[in-house]
């Protein structure tokens, strides 16, 4: 059997007491809050982050959508936290179950909606480029000397 690694310090746990939290094992001294780094005990009301790390009750996150304190599993994206039920695509409003998403300035998008947005953006750019090309051609035609009416007057 492969030796167990401490989820806190990532070294082998070979002896002594450990804390089992979620699917992870920790040395007692390594069982610390992921936000404030204070040592916590297993009697505390803890939040389990999706990376397996604990967050103490004092440092609990608030959901970016519903603004309620997260007391169970949190999904963290950068500086934002979500209840798993609130983690939804801003375009289609579907719950993102597989955690395959894209975060843009417009919010969180599921993979299908992100691809759709990329294609729409690409089409808009192409239309704009074609419009600009059409205007340039018209400008070239209008500036040819044989079309300059000012010399005939």
UniProtKB/TrEMBL annotation:
- Which stretches of sequence are listed as region Disordered? 120-153
Show where the LIM zinc-binding domain sits: 61-120
Mind telling me which SMART domains this protein's record contains?
Answer: LIM (SM00132)
Alphabetically ordered keywords of this record: LIM domain, Metal-binding, Repeat, Zinc
Report if keyword Ion transport is assigned. Answer: no
The organism's place on the tree of life at top rank: Eukaryota
Protein name per the record? LIM zinc-binding domain-containing protein
The organism encoding this protein is Rhizopus microsporus
């Amino acid at each position: 059997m492969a030796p167990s690694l401490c989820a806190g310090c990532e070294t082998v746990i070979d002896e002594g007491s450990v804390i089992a939290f979620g699917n992870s094992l920790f040395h007692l001294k390594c069982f610390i809050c992921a936000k404030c780094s204070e040592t916590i005990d297993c009697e505390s009301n803890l939040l389990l982050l999706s990376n397996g790390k604990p967050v103490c009750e004092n440092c609990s996150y608030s959901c970016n959508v519903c603004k309620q304190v997260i007391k169970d599993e949190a999904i963290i994206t950068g500086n934002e936290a979500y209840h798993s039920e609130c983690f939804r695509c801003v375009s289609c409003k579907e719950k993102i179950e597989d955690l395959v998403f894209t975060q843009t300035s417009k919010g969180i998008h599921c993979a299908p909606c992100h691809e759709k947005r990329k294609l729409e953006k690409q089409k808009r750019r192409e239309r704009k480029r074609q419009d600009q090309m059409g205007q340039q051609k018209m400008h070239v035609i209008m500036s040819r000397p044989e079309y300059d009416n000012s010399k005939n007057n």
